Amino acid sequence: MKTQFLLCASFVLAGCASAPATLPAGSTVTLALLETTDLHGNVASYDYYKLAPDASLGLERTATLIRAARAEFPNNVLLDNGDTIQGTALSDYQAVAAPLPCGETLAIYQVFNALGYDGAGVGNHDFNYGLAYLNQVTGSRFDVEGVDPGRPACAGPSFPHVLANVVSVKSGQPLFRPYAIIDKPVTATGPDGKPLQTTVKVGIIGFTPPTILTWDKRHLEGKVRTIGVREAAERYIPEMRAQGADLVVAISHGGLDDSEYAPSLENGSWHLALVPGVDALLIGHSHQVFPNAASTVPQFNLPGVDKAKGTVYGVPTVMASLWGKHLGVIGLRLKRQDGRWLVDKERTTVEVRPIQPAGSAAVAADSAVLPLIAPQHEATIRYVKTPIGDTDFRLSTYFADVGDVSAIQVVNQAQAAYLADYVKANLPHLAGLPVLSMASPFKTGSAGASDFTDVAAGRIALNNAADLYLYPNSLVGVQVDGAVLKGWLEKAAGRFNTIDPARPGEQELVNTGFAGFNFDMPTSAELQYEIDVTQPAGRRIVNLRWRGAPLVPGQQFLVATNNYRAAGGGGFPGLDGSRTVVTAPDNNRDVLIAYIKRQRELRRDVNGNARSWRFARVATVGPVVFHSAPGKTALAREAGLDNVRELRADDGGGKGLALYAIDLGR
Question: What are phi and psi of 454, to 5 degrees?
Fold first, then answer.
């Protein structure tokens, strides 16, 4: 049966499957759609950055939920929503440190094959290692510049990847197949109550954020172009129906955004739900749980969105967070009418199942998973233990949102030193300009108490450098004036909510809808400023001074950053790729590793306490609160933050975080 499915999936665009036998009207079947999304390489329940087991994540535990869901729903389709191949040290090991041979299947795809995935979409981070690597590990034959379409396909997964809105510039054809139609054998129930064996043709179509052209410009420019998700859906869904699809499942690697539609819209899933013919919607990218009746996330409180039932304009919709922490389950109730299957939306169910329910232990790992990748897992651990230096202080992001730069400054120092040396050697006409650097805290607790950078004092190894710099970005230098620099800082200050000093109740300091990796900050004694959180976003940077004097708007600077930010990632004003003066051949993490090796020992007074910014002082009637891991007040004190105190060891949010208060008047 599986061999027959794989053969059919490979040639479905030519319409290989025969039509199922005629079924009597009134026949019913329940078909479960099972979703994983944003796994980011987390196969094992293990944190390679901390070199410790972590039961709160990992596909090996999601696999246990998959097995239970299949027992409950014998008729099921298992699908992944992308951002699959990048995100852990295991991912980097196979892509960069010990490049995967063509004949070997990527570790996470080995597990997918064993679990019997039926199909997958493609996320934005799947492009991070370049088109040649993506072509290799997916077993594809891309017809794009830089990839030889005549070479035999490498080992890949045994299921189809679908992506409808990315097109090769060279061929004008979709990079992947835009859709596939899976012939799924099911047991239905006839109107007489007796079981019937039949086949449901499940069409799957994939979408990725069109903004990949900005985020991975160095890999994609001139090689691929994107189509708006709505345009792609409107083009291919009728074709899928004509090919015999009974159902159309959109695998959309994007969240919900009701902004005026544009083909470049990052999170287009809200608009996809309005395209005729979509029966179910699997979404991702935003790392959230949907449905969730208690969610306060803005994207789940939009017109047409039922965050309790799990629908978007009536279309059953699920988002299974990230890292294998949840499994999305849509129980489609189908009824045979007029010779086709119709979704009974009133009886269809949507839920997200956690591997670690609140207040409970995590489910056991599926014992069959880790042995599949044991050699790669163990090799990665050996690799990341390679020592590169020492530190006399702890580098962490537990309090990066309120001023601790212990995990930020060394990144900035490494980037600035690299850019200054590069300019001196290659661009002497720019060598007289001051050099700054911008870095951000990549891990700020969005996934729970373990989701923080934390490098202990003592030996620094490669895994610690990967913890300090999470993504495989490349270093870029941009030339900006003082006005653009101020706009950059203003945009970064969007990390905070607007605080009302006269409000008596608790006020949340951090805007969780603004990603921590967009909270860019310099760490230079020469550049000083304050963030006034009582002011609206865009008017918060005050007392901005360069070398003790007010910053002059026309003052020119070179700023070290990464390719994502320099090309427009995050929507920072003035940063659109046009100000790039250096596109380095090295990635940011390698630059950091080389810097630590040269320094040999990091010291707090040199590498961990140079704050450029502080909050403007303001007395508030009620407490201003934020969330971090419990029991870390001593770390705040070590960073000089004596205005922080822990209010409650459990903030009640179910992620293991504590509630802290900050006194903005001190």
Answer: -155, 100
